[in-house]
Amino acid sequence: MAARSPDEQHRAATPLELLFDLVFVVAVARASSQLHHGIADAHVADALLGYSMVFFGIWWAWMNFTWFASAYDTDDVAYRLAVFVQLVGALIFAAGVTRLFVGDLLIGVIGYVVMRLALVGQWVRAARSDPERRPACLRFALGVGTVQLGWVALLALPQSMVTTGFLILAILELAVPIWAERAAHTTWHPEHISERYGLFTIIVLGESILAGSLAIESAAEAGLLSTDLVSTVAGGLMIVLVMWWLYFERPFEWRLRSFSLAFIWGYGHLPIWAAAAAVGAGLSVAIDEVTGEATIGVVGAGAAVAIPAAIYLFGLWALHLPMANSPADRFLAPVAVVLILLTPWTGEAPLLTGLALVGLLVAKHLFARRAVSAEGWISRSESSR
Questions:
Q1: Domain span including residue 138
Q2: Do residue 98 and residue 217 come from a single domain?
Q3: Which of 216, 195, 197, 275 lies closest to 240, judged by CA?
Q4: Looking at residue 224, what is its pLDDT?
Q5: pLDDT of the residue at 367
Q6: What is the pTM of this model?
Q7: Which of 170, 165, 36 shows the shortest CA–CA distance to 97?
Q8: Are 348 and 250 part of one and the same domain?
Q9: Within a 10 A sphere around the Cβ of 260, how many other Cβ atoms?
Q10: Which of 15-19, 191-195, 352-356 is the least confident region?
Q11: Burial classification of residue 18, based on how many CB atoms lie within 10 Å of its CB (0-12 exposed, 13-18 middle, 19 or more buried)
Q12: How far apart are CA 274 and CA 308, in angstroms?
């Protein structure tokens, strides 16, 4: 299992990686659905807690697989079989999502530990084959394996201590790569990682589209189509499409060539992806409110759309901030975030949130065109002197 070169040309996602993503679609869809029902029934705190725990497990397992594959994807029989075990763990984890939301951790923890222990085996194999990076590989294997003992022990804790135990174990999980990479840097491929993150972004945005589509279908079958429903759907489409546009607006590859920046960039996607999937749940809640099936009220339903949209936008702005080269890039997004957070009190949060995002996109392009025109005018003036 030799390390792959970070300078490899035309490195793209493999069919096995796409299959792995497909399994995680199921887990994300279940998490979004449970969040939708919890918020619609006004059980907001419990729904958010359950969603946070579930999405962390989804995100972290996917992250670890992706970065390992970028460095050591040999695509031989042993590698494929290990990934199949991780796929089985992901399916078990997805099957336990509903139970996780009500405090039953058993199936979810089993699935998560299966995924992670398969990865431990991969790191041990990499350590045997890559002497240069053996210290890092062994640290990964030791760290990941040890934390799994903690997840198993979590099952024995009383319910009152589960949240605290989860937070401690999540912090330890996040610390393992930082500790391991200090021994020797693994050879992830910047363009490959950027593509993989883009594909997962499309997955979580797709959940928003799916959630909205299912809610519309239910409303249509019940004969509840109305002007309010149309405006909610229109706003939802604008939100999702602009969220996609803003994410793929600029390339990220250059940030992944720096060790410290790559960690910030990689970890910084947790709130972005969690918020993107939560937008789908929020849109379903907003449609339930229009059709009279939600008990949370119009302001609460609006907040279920506006808050995750604002978190997504703010998180994306924070990642793009080092590339900001104009006042517009630095200040337009925070202004839009504030406007979006005010929309729940208007009674038209999905529509106005969508319009705010469209307005942000238009303003960014107008400022960009003005900057290009100004640079061209300056260049012509200097050449005429």
A1: 15-181
A2: no
A3: 275
A4: 60
A5: 80
A6: 0.89
A7: 36
A8: yes
A9: 9
A10: 191-195
A11: exposed
A12: 8
Residue 206 counted as domain residue: yes
Q: What's the rounded Cα separation, in Å, for the pair 220 and 369?
A: 43
Residue 133 counted as domain residue: yes
Q: Residue 236 pLDDT > 50, yes or no?
A: yes
CA distance 114 to 24: 15
Are 174 and 249 found together in one domain? no
Residue 176 neighbours by CB distance under 10 Å: 19
Q: Which of 135, 151, 181 is the last residue of a domain?
A: 181
SS3 readout for the chain: CCCCCCCCCCCCCCHHHHHHHHHHHHHHHHHHHHHHHHHHCCCHHHHHHHHHHHHHHHHHHHHHHHHHHHHHCCCCHHHHHHHHHHHHHHHHHHHCHHHHCCCCCHHHHHHHHHHHHHHHHHHHHHHHHCHHHHHHHHHHHHHHHHHHHHHHHHCCCCHHHHHHHHHHHHHHHHHHHHHHHCCCCCCCCHHHHHHHHHHHHHHHHHHHHHHHHHHHHHHHHCCCCCHHHHHHHHHHHHHHHHHHHHHCCCCCHHHHHCHHHHHHHHHCHHHHHHHHHHHHHHHHHHHHHHCCCCCCCHHHHHHHHHHHHHHHHHHHHHHHHHHCCCHHHHHHHHHHHHHHHHHHHHCCHHHHHHHHHHHHHHHHHHHHHHHHHHHHHHHHHHHHC
Number of domains forming the structure of the chain:
2
How far is residue 336's CA from residue 332's CA, in Å, rounded to a whole number? 6
Backbone φ and ψ of 288, nearest 5°: -60, -40
- The reported pLDDT for the residue numbered 228 is 74
Token digits of residue 29 = 């869809």
Specify whether 230 is located in the same domain as 149.
no
> 92: which residues sit within 8 A by CB, 6+ positions away?
107, 110, 111, 114
Task: Specify if 280 maps to a domain.
Answer: yes
Are 294 and 303 contacting, i.e. CB atoms less than 8 angstroms apart?
A: no
The span from the CA of 216 to the CA of 350, in Å, is 14
Mean pLDDT calculated for residue range 85-110: 90
Domain finish residue from 134, 152, 181: 181
